[in-house]
Amino acid sequence: MAREAYWVVIPSYNEAATIRDVAARARHRCPNVIVVDDASSDGTEQALAGLDVTVLRNEANRGKAGSLARGFEYALSRGAVGIITLDADGQHAPEEIPAFIERSQDDPNVFLIGARRRDHRRASFRRYLANCIADFWIGWASGQAIEDSQSGFRLYPARLLQTVKIPHGPDRSFVYESEILIEAARQGMVIKSVAVSVGRRSASSPSHFRPLLDIVRITRMVAWKLVGRGMYPVGLYRLLHRRLGGRTPDRRHYGERASVTPLRK
Length: 265
Description:
Blueprint: E1 6-12, H1 19-29, E2 33-37, H2 44-47, E3 54-57, H3 63-77, E4 82-85, H4 97-106, E5 111-116, H5 118-121, H6 125-142, E6 154-157, H7 158-163, H8 173-186, E7 191-196, H9 211-227, H10 233-243
Parallel strand pairs: 1-2, 1-4, 2-3, 5-7
Antiparallel strand pairs: 4-6, 5-6
Helix pairs in contact: 3-8, 6-8, 6-9, 6-10, 8-9
């Protein structure tokens, strides 16, 4: 499968200082790049002038989830088989995009997350703690041990985006990225990691992730998912068993679907 079948979506909100460099480097690794300018007021759209990428501008702020959804819709309408997302602030290295494409070519239905090294994630203790909490809850609800569930560097299979419908209002930006992991697992998709590096965030590009508020929202969403499945004890067992290095028998419970791809030994 050629790399022309893959698209890159970069949501951007007030990232004029970094967006051109990130988009240009992504364009060198993939011919199809979309930047979704989420009603930025700092000249983000102008910073991309003359660059061979598709720019979609939201006239009103939709949040990260809404911007991702718009980019997904555009790429899918043009036949994308996989969509790679990365942040616009320069922390993700576009040079690592080929690693995602290569893994996806082996298995187009696998959902890939760019997992940052733990020593890099520990650079901010509050964010690292928040991420660990999110990893645990999302892993429980999905029944899979997920590394770095809050990473925005991902490859979404087209099959997943064509079938999963998740609310993506402005207040669900990081909730959306967590919920889609759970829904992917419920569809029987295997979620795997690709090791990635992480750069230093530009001083002009503060994080839009709010550790307390966003983790509360994520935890509330996951809690409802668990309550709806009787607290999904099988999911907790699978998570703990896999984290301890065990191998869980391939059994399905609570109406789970068969995996679209077999687990590789």
